[in-house]
Design brief:
Layout (H helix, E strand, L loop, with lengths): L1 E6 L2 E6 L6 E11 L5 H11 L9 H10 L4 E9 L2 E11 L10 H14 L3 E2 L2 E2 L1 H17 L4 H14 L12 H4 L4 H14 L1 E7 L3 H16 L20 E7 L4 E8 L9 H11 L6 H9 L5 E7 L4 E8 L4 H17 L4 H18 L3 H14 L6 H9 L3 H8 L3 E10 L1 H4 L2
Helix pairs in contact: 1-4, 1-7, 3-8, 9-12, 9-14, 9-15, 10-11, 11-15, 12-14
């Protein structure tokens, strides 16, 4: 893996990926999230994915990708703590597998940069018809969120947990604002991103000459933009607080419980492997305490799992329970955390969880998407960019005491319950 600085706020990361017959080019724009433009940035990837100036509609874009031996183009957005990330990726076969010797990598790069820097505009703004279509899609997705009660419960808990913090800005956008978005407003948000975002180019499976050509082309595109890259927002952490309980009632059978914990201070990057093993042990694997004890032995949850968000130093525990078991489930989850913090951890369960994580590290490099996602996340976290092998080696050195130390830092801030209304309970 190689990483260089191409210009202020612009970095290029390369990996050979020799074992694949395909290559992947990804362009990441990362910038501090803003409440006033959150909905525009939720809509932006949907519109960008429809085409560009050289392929002004989805039909032309689909034909172009088909001519490139079925290359795959994606545009998506990801929230990373208090930052927003928009990623454009294209994946296709390497030049040496082209039937007629086509310079495919150059074509991939041209299309990638066209989507990023030359979208299809009408009189200087995004096409009104395309914007209207994607607004309807975004609106439908936001309206349907309430039907996905697990996701709805998590988002409701996060709203209370983060309060006014930038980390609480919804990457999915806000339903009340979708209708009012105009092509001009979307274009302004796009221009702001080009000017202020940190730009990361990740190239996988390209030869030296091909990679150099892509870097040169990217530099030329950026030279035409009045750039003023903004520093990324630092890691955030919500302060410890007295636990706040919230309950919403719906016409539903299975209740959803989301519990959000905080470290009370931003995490230390060098402890990343300890947090990974701690999550696997607590609730992030099929050999975890929450799975084996709360779900299987106590049989009070349909599912129960934990996850850790490094950018916000927070842990989420999500579970599906019978409404009558909600209070019992919360107590059982807290009891399991306390047991790990102060009680014995057997060598067998620790190693079972470690083996699962090691297997995951070993599989990262089984796909180009896995490699790209790994390095993109490592770069966004800041600090030293570790390879999957380096992370695996560090994990092997994590001890029982390391796990117990990080788990002891968590305190419960918000417990959010979606449960059955009185009418539903009596049906």
């Amino acid at each position: 893996m190689k990483r260089i600085s191409l210009a202020p706020g612009v970095h290029v990361t390369r990996a050979d990926a020799d074992k694949f017959n395909r290559c992947r080019l990804s362009l990441h724009f990362t910038f501090p999230a803003k409440r006033e433009s959150a909905t525009a940035h939720a809509l932006l990837p949907l519109v960008l994915e429809r085409g560009c100036a050289s392929c002004p509609d989805m039909t032309e874009l689909t034909k172009k990708l088909a001519r490139l031996y079925g290359a795959d183009l994606t545009v998506d957005a990801r929230a990373q703590g208090a930052n927003h990330n928009l990623c454009i990726s294209i994946t296709g076969i390497k030049d040496k597998f082209a039937l007629e010797g086509e310079a495919l990598a150059a074509e991939y790069a041209r299309l990638l940069l066209d989507v990023a820097f030359h979208p299809y505009l009408v009189e200087g703004v995004f096409d009104a018809e395309a914007v209207a279509i994607e607004k309807a899609m975004l609106k439908k997705a936001l309206e349907d969120e309430i039907n996905e009660k697990r996701i709805y419960c998590l988002h409701a808990a996060q709203r209370e947990f983060f309060a006014g913090s930038p980390a609480g800005i919804r990457q999915e956008g806000y339903l009340s604002e979708v209708e009012g978005l105009t092509p001009a407003a979307l274009t302004a948000a796009y221009r702001e991103m080009l000017a202020g975002a940190q730009v990361g180019l990740i190239l996988l499976g390209l030869e030296d000459g091909q990679a150099q050509a892509v870097q040169t082309a990217l530099a030329a595109e950026l030279w035409a933009v009045a750039r003023a890259p903004q520093p990324l927002a630092p890691f955030v952490c919500m302060p410890r607080r007295e636990t706040a309980h919230f309950t919403e009632k719906f016409d539903m059978v299975q209740a959803k419980l989301c519990m959000l914990f905080t470290l009370g201070e931003p995490m230390e990057l060098e402890q990343m492997q300890a947090y990974r093993l701690a999550m696997a042990l607590f609730g992030g694997s099929v050999t975890s305490r929450l799975f084996l004890n709360v779900r299987e032995k106590m049989n009070i949850c349909y599912y129960c799992s934990s996850s850790f968000q490094s950018f916000t130093a927070s842990m989420a525990v999500n579970s599906g329970v019978e409404p009558a078991n909600a209070e019992k489930a919360e107590k059982a989850i807290l009891d399991e955390l306390a047991a790990l913090c102060g009680g014995p951890i057997t060598a067998e369960e620790l190693e079972d969880c470690r083996r699962g994580l090691v297997s995951g590290f070993d599989s990262v490099e089984d796909s180009l998407g896995g490699i790209e996602a790994w390095y993109a996340m490592e770069i966004l976290r800041g600090g030293i960019v570790h390879t999957p092998a380096e992370a695996r080696d560090a994990l092997l050195n994590v001890t029982e005491n390391d796990v117990r130390a990080v788990l002891n830092q968590f305190s419960l801030s918000v417990s959010y319950l979606l449960t059955a209304s009185e009418e539903a309970e009596h049906e």
